[in-house]
Specification:
36 strands, alpha/beta, 10-stranded mixed sheet
């Protein structure tokens, strides 16, 4: 647990981030920040939330009814999709198209591997139920809805005890009437059933992605609605009756009611908070090119941030099962901050495979039983066990002293699963585990930037999460990065990011038209409809006078398979074809380096976003080295950079004031994480209390 300067103000904000291993809670009151990290309670995640809230309220001496807002991010939706622990779900779809979610795009994500398996659809074939109806691409009725064909499906829903239904018909993004009527019938005959309409959750062209998104939303909706409603009741019982906002995967905040209806938008909500924090720090430090690095107990997330903004996308794949390769996961069409996520966290398990190779992850020990050193019955070695045996963790002061780590248990696990099979000493085996996980993350970072045509040179690494500061210097060494920023309260970085995120909601509609035949009045009507929908979500929790509207079109040359996002002008008059073409060509040239003369342009989809201003202003950060830090103690540890044991200076993070500096090898210890300053790096505390690691002159790996 940690805090900063006290404040006399009674009002405060709470942020809660549920991860696969730990649940982080942050209380922010003016300049005071109280943080805690507790093990996630798998059976009921709300238990850990309430434990963490109780802890920060007690430390802060705060009253529950003085909270102004609770901001929440969670991995529950993601975990339910990955672990296939959602509701029994049916898909009602156009007759003859029930297999669209299994046929997918009919391509191979790995051309030369004959044994690849596609992700198994969330809805099995016997629950993909055909309905007699048909619309054409313009939304005109080709075959009227046969309501009896819907009623005839009721016994099947009853037989398999279906708790949730996705309704997805061809071209419903243009005309939703058939989907809406079927929903009315289901509500009449099965009022207890949860219902998702594809025209609501993903009103976009491309049937496979739209149906996949609708199925995913339906699959997790009962679980998430139950959890969020229960959490709301438990907060009310504690007298925390303030609004509850949910972090979305796109980096904005939405209402609890909207989250219950569209929980698929919460996928990757935790990592999105970390990306928002990294973008905020990048702006404060004038860092043009950044790689954010979020390593927790279960996964590591890497995100490209250029010019202070993370990369955004409208598509995401959950649970990439084949070496994290694109196409091997379940696609969902939602606004999302684009990042790569790999199974590399403090709880990632190490083992030796049949070929005698050391492997780390993606399987994780989670919070139960956790790494062997947690002393909760785990007997397999995890990354945290290796970090402990390498001397980077204080066994008596882990998680702010809330846990004592068992070095003997860690040693037994590492020896049994890695050391003995590979004929290595305990230290060498622990070093191997650390080296493999660091290289896995470095490889993922290189691939992520290469896929997007981005360079690694001159990037700054911003590291947060419980495990990232331990590994950041070594990752920077591998990536030839010279500067690392470890934010204040880095161990709970994603939750801190929630407090920086603005209230925001994005709406999308697919309305096809060629640019030469642009119907400005039709576009205005679509924009007005989208603005009304977004306004209904954000107006209740944001000042209407401060809302900012932004609009984009997804455009391409006729005949191309994929479109690009083009920013539209402010809504001050009808759109002009010439202006849209100039904007498209500028965006196309920036991405591909050229345009294609005399080729017609078409528009597939339109988006509109309403945003409130960020609650925290960007304050310029800087470095002033004016005081050498005093070490609290020393510790013997293994330094990978020089390949030998070294005597490292240990510092308490709360003792380091702005301007304090130190040289590696060193450990900077705080309640929720520890920063390893490797040999060849120095560290300095910035004016905003961030820890900045820099490669010392003469040790650069560039060249």
């Amino acid at each position: 647990m940690a805090g900063t300067d006290q404040s006399m103000s009674s009002s405060y904000r709470l942020a809660v981030d549920i991860g696969g291993t730990f649940t982080d809670v942050v209380l922010q009151r003016a300049t005071q920040r109280i943080t805690t990290k507790v093990l996630t309670t798998i059976d009921d995640p709300a238990d850990a939330v309430m434990i963490g809230i109780d802890q920060v309220l007690e430390i802060a001496g705060a009253r529950p009814n003085d909270a102004s807002v609770v901001i929440h991010g969670t991995t529950l939706a993601t975990n339910a999709l990955i672990q296939r622990s959602g509701a029994t779900t049916a898909l009602l779809t156009t007759q003859g198209h029930r297999d669209a979610v299994e046929m997918a795009l009919e391509n191979r994500f790995e051309q030369y591997d004959l044994d690849i398996d596609r992700p198994t659809p969330l809805v099995p074939r016997h629950l993909r139920l055909p309905v007699q109806e048909r619309l054409d691409a313009r939304g005109e009725v080709l075959l009227r809805l046969d309501e009896q064909s819907v009623i005839d499906l009721l016994p099947v829903l009853e037989q398999y005890n279906v708790a949730s239904a996705a309704i997805g018909f061809l071209h419903s993004y243009v005309n939703p009437l058939h989907e809406q009527r079927v929903a009315q019938l289901l509500q009449k005959y099965r009022p207890e059933m949860s219902i998702t309409l594809s025209c609501d959750v993903c009103p976009e062209i491309r049937e496979y992605e739209r149906l996949s998104t609708a199925c995913a939303n339906a699959y997790v909706k009962p679980l998430m609605a139950s959890y969020l409603t229960s959490l709301r009741d438990r907060l009310d019982a504690l007298d925390l009756t303030c609004p509850v906002l949910l972090m979305t995967s796109g980096g904005g905040l939405t209402t609890l009611e909207t989250a219950c209806e569209f929980p698929i938008r919460l996928v990757e909500s935790g990592p999105a908070g970390g990306a928002i924090l990294a973008a905020h720090i990048a702006q404060a430090n004038s860092c043009a090119e950044v790689l954010s690095f979020d390593m927790g107990g279960t996964t590591a997330k890497l995100c490209v941030i250029d010019d202070g903004e993370p990369l955004l996308s409208r598509s995401f794949e959950v649970d990439r099962s084949y070496r994290f390769k694109k196409g091997s996961g379940l696609p969902v069409r939602i606004p999302v901050i684009e990042m790569v996520e790999i199974g590399a966290g403090g709880g990632s398990l190490a083992h030796v495979d049949k070929l005698g190779r050391l492997q780390v992850g993606p399987a994780s020990a989670g919070s139960v039983p956790g790494p062997a050193c947690y002393g909760q019955g785990g007997d397999r070695p995890a990354v945290t066990d290796a970090d402990l045996l390498l001397g980077k963790l204080d066994p008596m002061n882990f998680a702010g002293g809330g846990m004592q780590l068992d070095e003997s248990a860690a040693e037994r696990a590492v020896d049994k699963w890695v050391g003995e099979p590979m004929s290595l000493s305990t230290q060498a085996a622990a070093h191997g585990i650390s080296e493999v996980v660091n290289e896995n993350m470095a490889s993922a970072a290189r691939a992520h930037l290469a896929e997007r045509g981005k360079a690694m040179n001159e990037r700054v690494l911003i590291a947060f999460g419980g495990a990232a500061p331990l590994h950041a210097a070594l990752l920077a060494h591998k990536l030839k990065i010279d500067r690392v920023i470890v934010p204040m309260d880095a161990g709970v970085g994603s939750a801190v990011g929630f407090l920086i995120a603005p209230v925001r909601y994005e709406v999308v509609r697919s309305r096809y038209m060629q640019l030469a035949a642009l119907d400005a009045s039709a576009v205005d009507a679509v924009m007005a409809e989208m603005c009304s929908e977004a306004h209904s979500v954000v107006a209740s929790v944001a000042d209407e006078a401060e809302l900012v509207e932004s609009r984009s079109a997804y455009m391409r040359y006729v005949g191309q398979g994929y479109e690009i996002a083009v920013v539209l002008p402010a809504a001050e008059g009808p759109l002009q074809s010439a202006d849209l073409r100039q904007r498209f060509e500028a965006a196309y040239r920036k991405l591909y380096g050229r345009t294609i003369p005399d080729l017609e342009v078409e528009i597939l989809s339109w988006t509109l976003t309403l945003s409130a201003p960020p609650p925290v202003a960007v304050v310029t950060d800087s470095l002033l080295r004016n005081k050498r830090a005093s070490a609290d103690s020393t510790r013997r540890l293994f330094d990978v950079v020089i390949g030998d044991d070294v005597e490292a200076q240990c510092y308490r993070r709360e003792d380091l004031e702005p301007g304090a500096y130190l040289e590696g090898p060193a450990l900077v210890v705080e309640d929720q994480t520890t920063t390893f300053v490797a040999t060849g790096f120095s560290a300095c505390v910035s004016t905003q209390n961030h820890l900045v690691l820099e490669r010392q002159s003469g040790t650069s790996t560039h060249g």
